[in-house]
Design goal:
It is a single chain. By secondary structure, the protein is mainly alpha-helical. The chain contains 2 helices and no strands.
């Protein structure tokens, strides 16, 4: 009992499913909170001309 108790919500990389779930959540958060980047003006003008 000399070791401190494990933190229940600490990320663990030993479980592949848990790592995959965490990576999916991170990607979802990045996609959700990244501001919208409009396409470059060259692509817009080419699409309009076609």
């Amino acid at each position: 009992m000399a070791e401190p108790a494990a933190v229940p919500f600490a990320p663990t990389d030993d479980d592949p499913a848990q790592r995959h779930r965490r990576d999916l959540l991170a990607a979802l958060l990045v996609e959700r909170f990244t501001p919208y980047q409009p396409p470059p003006a060259a692509d817009r003008s080419r699409k309009g001309a076609a």
